[in-house]
Description:
Blueprint: H1 7-22, E1 28-29, E2 36-45, E3 53-55, H2 60-63, E4 70-72, E5 88-91, E6 96-97, E7 108-112, E8 115-117, E9 120-124, E10 127-133, E11 139-145, E12 150-153, E13 160-164, E14 168-173, E15 182-188, E16 193-195, E17 201-207, E18 210-218, E19 223-231, E20 236-243, E21 247-255, E22 260-268
Parallel strand pairs: 1-6, 2-22, 7-10, 9-15
Antiparallel strand pairs: 2-17, 3-4, 5-16, 5-18, 7-8, 10-13, 11-12, 11-14, 14-15, 18-21, 19-20
Amino acid sequence: MRRVVPRSLFFTFFFAASAVSFAQGDYKVITVTDGGTISGTVKWSGPVPHALTFPITKDPKICDPDSTKTRDLERLIVGPQGGVANTIVYLKNITGGKALELPEQRRHLNQKKCRYIPHILLVPQNATLSMMSSDATLHTIHMQGAATFNLPFPFTDRVATRSMSTRGLVHLRCNGGHVWMNAEMMVVSHPYYAVTDESGNFEFTDVPPGTYQIVAWHEGWNLLGKEHAYDVLTERSVERPLFSEPRTWEKSVTVSGNQASTVSFVVSNK
């Protein structure tokens, strides 16, 4: 019989490992001359697993207006051509380059129809994450990892902000009984991070010439079972999905001045 690691112990080791994995040394903004580009794809190989779903057990009029009864947990999104969306790709050992600019939409979180939108967030270290809820029900954003906020959202369309001061991975869940809600946020210290689009594509521009390690990180797509959680409204124990560990793949890439480099990752269920 498979032994299930207690959730608290899992997070202790998981976030400790994540802090090491995503830690970057002091990054310096420099003038990039003769910068190159890195582009590529993350693609799926083999049969695509069935989508992970979870029953909608609370606020069906708000969370399930189409009466589907279940919610796709969005853990693995594979496009028609095999591209894997929502994969974070980044350069691991870069110490200097352009100023820290990341897509603005990845720094704004909404709670709509009992989903976190977007599912993957990228926030520069010491920058602000803005959060709101479009749902007329109580949500919470409970963060574990590099940030540990637990924020209630009892009113619609009211924006709350928090500064993300520590680099690393942050795991987001709802403690308001909407146990299927999940998202991941990466707080980062340099601009060479990207989230793959629906076709699995990513691109970095103005990369200083040099050789780097490029990493593809995915949150993981397997469901290990269920765990007990706490509903702050009913003050009762509820069950939420327990996910497998994140997956990473790493390659070396060399960037030459004013040249384009291509890196492709192939991932599978093996």
